Amino acid sequence: RSFNVSLVAITMVITLIIMTISGNLVLSLGMVGAxxxxxxxxxxxxxxxxxxxxxxxxMGIANGVGYFNISIIGSxxxxxxxxxxxxxxxxxxxxxxxxxxxSTTDAAPIVKDIRKAVERFMLKSKTITPQYEEITAEVRLxxxxxxxxxxxxxxKKILKATLITYSGDLSQV
Length: 173
Prior knowledge:
- 51% of the residues lie in helices and 19% in strands.
- It is an alpha+beta fold.
- It folds into 2 domains: 2-86, no CATH class; 94-172, Alpha-Beta Plaits (2-Layer Sandwich), CATH 3.30.70.
- Helix 1 (2-21) runs antiparallel to helix 4 and helix 3 packs antiparallel against helix 4 (68-86).
- It is elongated and about 80 Å long.
- The model has no long low-confidence stretch (mean pLDDT 80).
């Protein structure tokens, strides 16, 4: 998502650069020199950070040349576009559900009941040992309703049921 935002934003920054240097050979050579000098001692992890660096350089050159109208309009438009594109819809917190059932118990009906109790259920792993079967799934709750976990704890066929909150980065692959 960050890379996609940076593609749109860098296009706008390049447009501002071209508008600033259009028709001025000296300014265009100066801009090439200024951009080629930029060296990063710290690795840039987020592409949007790179966009902000080039945006700052572009605005500095536009202001230095006296193109304040390009600088002001470009900054307003870039701000609106970046605010619009980086706004994320509020997502519900993902959880990992770790469930242990004896190997002699069929886990399918239990999983079926859990699927009904949660908004989303995605099986991540299944570990089978001679003593038990461990099921790990990513779940999204209906609201903040964790009452199904109490029902799982009361069920004698279930050895252990654990709900773990996590960032959800693994599921975004």
